[in-house]
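Input record, target 12 of the design panel.
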């Protein structure tokens, strides 16, 4: 498949009404819910990944734009996963330090951030942000101030999904042993009012502790546990021994 329209037509042919109803409930698409108005075809993620595999890897970004702007949740995911695939192809051992590849990676990240509002449910963020923006933070030749400005802009946005991107992208930086990104945005989002951000912050803190340092996680909790929403705290301490979890929750 070489065009967005071919991909959309193919994905629409896979429509599954029973699964569609399940997904619309699971992703909270009802009135007043976080996914209000989101529309599904009823495809499972492995089906969408298979479409990505079948699609032209060199499809122009203009075609990817059409996918990401689609009304269909799964088509938007397909477009985002195509960006992930393209980015990862530019990070092979042969290309990781190549100047042209670095420029192309920057272009993909720019494109992703320009379309960030279209990653408008938690799975779309979680399947794209660490492997695109997070990986870019690790590999980019941009200076730290530039990186911080870009992620800060997401964190300070009034858009829930941009905010979640700013937090979830730190999964990759923590995997690379750098706790600073996670700690910065965990503190920035500490008093967020939405449950999806409570879960995201707690999840990323947990991963930071696992990947970098449990002592750093405990230091953060000693400073903030009493003011953290209980869901955030519960997620953050999930991998700790039961006795320690109980002590943190009783604070």
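The sequence produced for target 12 reads:
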């Amino acid at each position: 498949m070489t065009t967005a329209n071919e991909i959309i037509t193919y994905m629409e042919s896979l429509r599954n009404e029973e699964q569609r109803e399940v997904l619309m409930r699971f992703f909270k698409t009802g009135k007043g819910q976080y996914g209000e108005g989101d529309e599904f075809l009823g495809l499972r993620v492995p089906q969408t990944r298979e479409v990505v595999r079948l699609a032209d890897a060199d499809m122009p970004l203009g075609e990817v734009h059409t996918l990401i702007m689609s009304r269909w949740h799964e088509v938007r995911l397909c477009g985002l996963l195509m960006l992930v695939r393209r980015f990862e192809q530019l990070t092979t051992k042969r290309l990781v330090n190549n100047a042209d590849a670095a420029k192309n990676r920057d272009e993909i990240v720019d494109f992703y951030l320009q379309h960030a509002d279209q990653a408008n449910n938690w799975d779309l963020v979680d399947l794209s942000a660490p492997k695109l923006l997070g990986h870019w933070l690790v590999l980019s030749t941009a200076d730290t101030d530039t990186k911080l400005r870009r992620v800060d802009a997401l964190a300070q946005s009034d858009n829930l999904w941009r905010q979640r991107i700013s937090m979830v992208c730190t999964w990759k930086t923590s995997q690379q042993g750098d706790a600073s990104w996670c700690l910065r945005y965990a503190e920035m989002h500490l008093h967020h009012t939405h449950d999806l951000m409570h879960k995201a912050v707690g999840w990323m803190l947990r991963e930071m502790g696992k990947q970098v340092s449990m002592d750093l996680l405990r230091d953060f909790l000693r400073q903030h546990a009493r003011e953290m929403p209980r869901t955030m705290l519960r997620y953050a301490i999930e991998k700790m021994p039961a006795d320690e979890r109980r002590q943190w929750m009783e604070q």
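The first helix runs from residue 4 to 13.
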